[in-house]
Write the structure tokens for this entry.
Amino acid sequence: MTKQKKFILQENQIPTQWYNIQADMPNKPLPPLNPANHQPLTAEDLSHVFAAECARQELDVTHQWIDIPEPVLEKYKYYRSTPLVRAYALEEALDTPAHIYFKNESVNPLGSHKINSALPQCYYCKEEGTTNVTTETGAGQWGAALSYAAKVFGLDAAVYQVKISMEQKPYRSSIMRTFGAAVTGSPSMSTRAGKNILTVDPTHPGSLGTAISEAVELATTTPHCKYTLGSVLSHVTLHQTIIGLEAEKQMEMAGEYPDMVIACFGGGSNFGGLAFPFLRHNILDGKNTEFIAAEPDSCPKLTRGVFQYDFGDEAGYTPLIPMFTLGHNFKPANIHAGGLRYHGAGSIVSQLIKDKMMHGVDIPQLESFQSGMLFARTEGIIPAPESCHAIAATIREAVRCKEAGEKKTILFNLSGHGLIDMTSYDRYINGDLQNYSLSDKEIRDNTSTLEQII
Ligand SMILES: *Cc1c(COP(=O)(O)O)cnc(C)c1O
């Protein structure tokens, strides 16, 4: 029998609803709070910054299933379903009895999973009469997806890109500008938040936290302008559940069910997007899948952070969100996985980790690239530096299976390709990259400044 390697859904099998795990969680996430008075925020409050529908989805803890609007579904069908692939060549190279599958979210023209949420966010903005959208971006995947989605729905986009990532990955700014977006490096002198940050530290390399501050400020000071976010928030992860819902059907086609589900972790949207539809079966049907979020060891909020209310951005403009965090002033090392340089985790995943229903694992930068290189050489796809963390965690588990003689089924998310990140690969190949470790004291010094709300 020839080995079947790739599983693809027919157009009529593509899910028409997203899955809202908040409805099924034994302990609901704590609500976002107004920083001024610590009162829970309403959808009405959030809709000053976000599209009203996104604000409603953010706080929805009752509806399990949320319809994907027809125009969004239409656009999804341009590139979905994405393939589920059995990584036979990687298995062989590792000589593991484990079965390794990956969901390939790199195969859309934008190159990452981010487009799955950019499309609905821009659609809702357009429906509600917004003309301009603003956002932050790290390595540029979210900015690229948002710039394209804004163009699709006829909106003007302004993107703040983390300055260090802009320098490391200049082509992503070119992509955003090609789609018509205005791109500014953050921290910049164009906002009050940016000026304040640069006054304290003129050489600040920028972080997702600084860029979010600037984008939120622009949205709140510009008429008919809404802010969009590429990760962290619950409605973003909701949109990303299209990944796991497809994977569920595709694993069934492959005749298997995952013992382990693994994805890299920045704010949690690709991890939650793949994991939640499977976690649903742990909660409701007694399945026993293990869920592993792979974060950089230089930004270890899941394994070494504290569970506390914190701001989503550096300047403290966002609501207070209950999260595993390293503190909003945390300055992540300049690792090349720009999408993972973020201080906090989304509130749903944070609650689920607190409840021990999923867990994090820390990956050093060199191990991540080494794993990405093996994946490239076996499967022929150059993974995004972010995705390399998921591959590294998968390889660790596959090697463990070999040592224990266990035949587990592992599913991981290939969140994006690395074709715009070749400078990073060059630097790895030339031996110019290093690991960054953090002392407990550094983490304590940063998290101890957080206000104790819980
Ligand atoms: C943005 C990004 C990530 C990290 O964001 P999450 O919200 O944690 O998924 C991971 N991989 C790629 C390719 C990205 O673009």
About this structure: The two ends are 58 Å apart (CA to CA). The mean pLDDT is 96. Residues 112, 114, 141-142, 231, 264-271, 339-340, 384, 386-387, 415-416 surround pyridoxal-5'-phosphate (CB under 6 Å). DSSP finds 18 helices and 15 strands in the chain.
